[in-house]
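Researcher: For the record, we're logging two predictions in this thread. I'll number them. Prediction 1 follows.
Model: Prediction 1, sequence and structure:
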Amino acid sequence: MNRVFTTALVLGMSSATPVVAQDHNTHGKMQHEMSAKPAGDQSAPSKAFAAANAKMHEDMAIEFTGKADEDFVRGMIAHHQGAIDMAKIELEYGKDAEIRKLAGEIIAAQEAEIKQMKSWLAKNGG
């Protein structure tokens, strides 16, 4: 057990309020080790979704500024890009006409919102 987690665990046990600590170096290593192990289906679409999901979560790991508006926009840009990437996978591999249509709509909506958020960041010094 790493030192930060052990300290947090001990402190958490000794108080009424649980304490949660995260060693970002260890967390990143654990995520890498977990993603390196095959889990579930290993078909091309599943691998593509897993890669898009991993990239989205990595990109959402922003450094928070304490400015709620800016932090929200930065995190949401990555989140929306992840939705676009997954929708493109649906268009590549999906068969259902209704879901393929939805994927196209998601791409259009999310691209417009990313454009709006990037414009907001540019205007607001982000």
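Researcher: Logged. Prediction 2.
Model: Prediction 2, sequence and structure:
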Amino acid sequence: MSLDLKDNTLLKTHALIDGQWVKSSDQTTFEVLNPSDGKIIANVYSSGTLETSNAINSAELALKSWRKLTAKQRSSLLMKWYDLIAENIEDLTQILTAEQGKPLAEARGEIKYGANYIKWFAEEAKRIYGDTIPHTLPGTRILVTKQPIGVVACITPWNFPNAMLARKIAPALAAGNTVVCKPANETPLSALALGELAHRAGIPAGVINIVCGKTTEIGEELTSNPIVRKLTFTGSTAVGKKLTADSARTMKRTSMELGGNAPFIIFNDADVNDAIAGLMISKFRNAGQTCVCANRIFVQSGIYDQFVKAVKIAISKLKVGDGTEAGTQIGPLINERASKNVRALILDAHKKGADVLTAEESPTGNFIAPTLLLNTSDDMRVFKEEIFGPVAPIIKFETEEEVIRAANNTPVGLAAYFYARDIGLIWRVSEALDFGMVGVNTGTISDEMIPFGGMKESGQGREGSRYGLDDYLEMKSLTIGGIDK
């Protein structure tokens, strides 16, 4: 298929290494498919060990000059990159929807969201501060400085192919590091377009390198090569554990933003209409394919019937279809494997006693109609696993203690949400939930100004906010004596 772009040069199919667009050494390619209809969008060159090694060496060479730039100079280049993204937002939106499937309005929102991280860290680059600490000895001072880690490997998922990469590259570059990026093979085109705009912004060759293709070869080179000093990953908990273990061989710094199983709790005193509005955003955005997506919906018994009735009406109004069609709110899942898994989750719940309510007969292909599961229990897969689809299990509860225990009954702890008006209840529940991010009376928690990350097996480290630079900096202490002579 062809894309109707104003600037066709944004559609790249080569690896970006040392400022050059290069083919793979063996000339092999892989197909990028539109998840709505299965048509081929592009054939992208498949990088492997050699290309990844070259990209790492390029990043190491570029690091020498990039880290010497002043924070203000790096900030200026990041701002130019941000401006170019804003200027090309419609083409970037078309590319993102074509390869990922989400509706155009959501894709446009993702581009803006990702660009905001670049702008934020362009500003934060000028605020990397140190400290002066009094020493116990006379004539001696301690200085604490912060400096770049070095070459950073960035591995990103397919569900937010633009924003997740921007959220990693921006703080890395702001801190003075260089990067080698591996986007998901399902959605490499958004990442490569960002690389092209970074080049146009004047970010020097080798500062940003992008390779995609042979996932195992690329991953092994990124984790084993001692030049890479940090690896940042967004994706599944299982893969994150493996990357962490592999990175330990060279004691790399790692930051992991991994899977979630978010509870969404509605207490009796909640504003039901507000709670439903928040649930619709949290659960059904990106067809439910988000790591902070509401996964288990707990409704207190006093408002359960009212809430279920209102949710049925809300999901009946959602339009499922191709992301480019006017009015589409639910696009396809990313591929056939994903849609089969979600259908299997629904079937498992049904076999174990859940009532399955859908707004319409599920369409064919990768499309899944918005679905409610009532009378669910904790022995069902939907209670334990990240659904990653437009499926909402609803569980009735009686007491605060009961729902806290159920909400925390998961090995992961990324995001949680709850609706209530009682101020004492709000404080107790927000502190009792074992999750890194908690939305109170809101279904939206993602923003460049918040520290994004989880607890338990949802990973380590934080992205975004003023804390987001910490994972990309080394702290060094300087003890200076003899200053009184």
